[in-house]
Amino acid sequence: MAKRLLVIATALATASCSTMQAFETREFSADGTLPPAPTSWSAGTGEAGAELARDWVASLQDARLTALIDEAFAGNPSLAQSLARYHGARAAARIDGARFLPQLDGSASYTRTERNTGAGSDSVSLGLSASWETDLWGALRDNSRASGLNAEAAAEDVRAAQLSVAGLVAKGWFSLIEARQQTELAERDVATRQSSLDLTERRFARGLVRSSDVRTARSALASSEAALASRQRAEASSARSLETLLGRYPSASLAPEGDFPELATLGGLGTPVDLLGRRPDVRAARDRLDAAGLQSEAAAKALIPSLSLRGSSGTGGVDVSDMFDLDTLVSSITASLVAPIFDGGTLLAQRDQVYANAEGLVASYVSTVLTAWQESENAIHADAILAQRVENLRQAYEEAAAAEDLVVREYARGVSTIFELLTAQSRRISAESQYISARRERVTNRVDLYLALAGDFSAAQSADPAAHTGE
Question: Which first-to-last residue range defines the signal peptide (predicted)?
Answer without folding.
Answer: 1-22
